[in-house]
Amino acid sequence: MRQKWNVLLLVVLLGCCGVVLGQGSSSVTDVSPPSVSFICGTRPQIPITFGLARRFVESPIARPNFRSEIVKKFDGDPDLRPLTPSSLGSLLPQQADFSSFRPDSYTVQVYNGVVSIKSSWPWMALLGEENNPRAPWFCDGVLINEQWVLTAAHCIIEKVPHVVRLGEHDLSSTHASNHQDYYVKKFVFHPDYDHKQVYHDLALIQLKQRVSITGSIRPVCLPWGSHPLPATGSLLTLTGWGGTYYNGPRSDVLQEASLYLLPASKCVAGYSTLHDYAQKYPKGITSDLLCIGDTDGQGQDACQGDSGGPVMHRRNNKYYLSGIVSLGYGCGKPEFPGIYASVHHSPDLAWIKRVAF
Hints:
The protein is α+β, with helices and mostly antiparallel strands.
């Protein structure tokens, strides 16, 4: 009851302040390629030596669980849009009580991956709180053009991002990369996102300054036009700084793992056994969700802290965004593959285009 009244209080406060939480209708589906001035999805030339380095790039081995906890905090009225850090600021952390959250419930993890080679994933982004020097980075994101980052909506509900870091590799070293920090101008929730359900878990973050595209900082490609969703069984790559085991700390060094696109029925078989399946998945596993997991028996997965990060596929020597890390159950459990927000879903991709391009 306390949480219910806190949510109602936030609705009133946000309504009084005229806060806008989203933008555009999801019914328009223009996904034709936008005019852009940058080259997307290309990776720097990475020297490959024999043996282990090749395996790092092409065949990630086991690393412990990292599925970031999805504590679905308040996302406000879905009819209000866009939201700025100054308008929500300290409201969200102070207005919700999540003492009853069970650590074995919905989480997001990259399990059994390996350390990435420096600068090999130049579109990776970190979301941070400027006023939290001890643990400023709480979610991942992906750069999609010179001024916008795509992430998971539940990340911004949990905490308010004030800064986005690009070009990072090793958080424990000040000399490991030439990273750049950018202040957040505003963030926009997907208009159909409902924190009580799993669908359309997407949000866009606009940076105050335009990003200078370099070898170590550049956008990922989006699947515009007739770019198809990879076939079931296709190999995908997941990257992130999430924890290396369930309930563990975030990784200092960027990790990567190889996963596979699975049939939706695989996720239905597992998640339908959970007590809150009907509430969170009232329409089932729909086309705006991707079921992604490991078929090699090593339990590779996403983990705590990887939320908002990308899962990608390679096509014509470029990397295209397939989905955004959204949720899962436990870490590396074979019966519970990860569930990702699909950017191949035409209404969602059209929304990204309207807001950010």
